[in-house]
Design a protein that fits this description.
Radius of gyration: 19 Å
CATH topology of the largest domain: Ribosomal Protein S5, domain 2
Number of strands: 12
Strand content: 25-35%
Shape: globular
Distance between the termini: 24 Å
Bound molecules: adenosine-5'-triphosphate
Structural class: alpha+beta
């Protein structure tokens, strides 16, 4: 049942993510890939504010804002429309996105905004969706969206959307180096398939083992041990991302030279992620890497109403 909506604006904070394990299975007949995707939410946040309006209006500010679409293709707008449709109401809302998560950087910024918009609109409209309903809508919007809602750490199976929460026994300190210009996620998967075929190994689901979580990685997260985690970080999309953007190899090497315990491409890239031994080491690495780099702690909570 719908209660009286509050008239004031609702602001929701949503985290970016890094994939500490991204194992990509073979291409399925429907063109998608099964994944074993271990997500870790990091303390680099977008803020999504929902305010009363007539019709759907979208504005944005912050980093990379020129690359954020302000039409119906924006994932936050799609989230508002999906929630309104589910409850048979009009999507009357002014959504404002304050962006800090790099756009098209493999850090799930658009997914974070979708989860933030769902939670903000639910509170503004008083739709009172249950956690399960919200997770259901998230999965319809995109495979990374459910994790943006829950945060922390989780294993995502299927296309990454079937989540199991994972224990994190301590804090991890990350640095993210933002590459100018994005990478298209579908293009990176196509390149991954191409590299597999070129290597003679086959790229179909039948050619490759079903992806599964690495038990040592799950144990390293549970122990909160950065050195142990550094030894097992893996991203099956990394070779494809570096193949498409060869300059990323130099960025990864610069992070290791600067004291990172490990370096990897974040998701489908082109953002590079570095695991640092301490908060102080992360701050100094962020200051010394060329280009834009940000230090961020993990784990971070999921979508949170402020
Ligand atoms: P993922 O890590 O989930 O693959 P990503 O971080 O690489 O995603 P996003 O920042 O989510 O990429 O953006 C990918 C594309 O989605 C952008 O180029 C942009 O055109 C579009 N987009 C739609 N909604 C948003 C949004 N709210 N913020 C940023 N980009 C958006």
């Amino acid at each position: 049942m719908r209660s009286d909506p509050p008239v004031t604006a609702v602001t929701v904070r949503v985290p970016a993510k890094v994939n500490v394990q991204l194992t990509v299975g073979g291409r399925r007949p429907d063109g998608f890939h099964d994944l074993a995707n271990v997500f870790l939410a990091v303390g680099l946040y977008d803020h999504v504010t929902a305010a009363p309006a007539e019709g759907l209006r979208l504005t944005a500010e912050g980093r990379d804002v020129a690359r954020v679409p302000l039409d119906g293709t924006n994932l936050a707008a799609r989230a508002a429309v999906a929630l309104a449709k589910r409850y048979g109401i009009e999507p009357d809302v002014h959504l404002h996105i304050d962006k800090a998560v790099p756009v098209a950087g493999g850090m799930a910024g658009g997914s974070a905004d979708a989860a933030g918009a769902l939670v903000a609109c639910d509170a503004l409209w008083g739709t009172g969706a249950s956690r399960e309903e919200l997770l259901d809508l998230c999965a319809e919007l995109g495979s990374d969206v459910p994790f943006s809602l829950v945060g922390g750490a989780a294993l995502g199976l299927g296309r990454g959307e079937r989540l199991t929460p994972l224990e994190v026994g301590g804090g991890f300190h990350w640095v993210f180096a933002v590459a100018e210009g994005g990478l298209s996620t579908p293009e990176v998967y196509r390149e991954c398939d191409r590299l597999r075929r070129a290597g003679g190994g086959g790229d179909l689901a039948a050619d490759l083992p079903a992806p599964a979580a690495d038990p040592e990685l799950v144990a390293a997260l549970a122990a909160g041990d950065p050195s142990r985690l550094a030894a097992v970080l893996t991203n099956d999309l990394q070779a494809a991302a570096v193949g498409l953007r060869p300059e990323l190899a130099a960025t990864l090497a610069a992070g290791l030279d600067g004291g990172a315990l490990a370096a990897l491409v974040s998701g489908s890239g082109p953002t590079c992620a570095f695991l640092a031994p301490s908060a102080a080491a992360a701050d100094s690495l962020a200051a010394t890497l060329p280009g834009r780099a940000y230090a961020a702690p993990a784990p971070a909570p999921g979508a949170t109403i402020l």
